[in-house]
Amino acid sequence: MKTTRKTKKQPQTRGSRRIAPWVFILIGLGLMLYGAWGFLTQSRSQPTTTVGNSAGIPYPEVERIALEDAKRAYDEGSAVFLDVRPASAYAASHIPGALNIPVNELPQRINELDPSRLIITYCT
Q: Beta-carbon neighbour count of residue 14 at 10 Å?
């Protein structure tokens, strides 16, 4: 006579091991897509050029000009470009036609500027 013995069934760990990595991968991909979507929507809502008063800009009371407007004024010759860097930096490279008055000399030389013209200062 043959006796059969009941054995306990082992939990199926092999199948669950295959599911767990895929769950984490799918969750990770979902988080990455959500982050990319958030980044894209945030960058679309912010302007690409900063003109006027903006947080984090030094001297917010100083009016800013957009690059496109500065380029147009340069092309038309309707503005004075004022390089406020030291003379050595100006000599190394500057906007053609720009006037150089280092910022530390500006109070003494302010009369050299025509107040009726648009004055665009730069230091880079």
A: 8
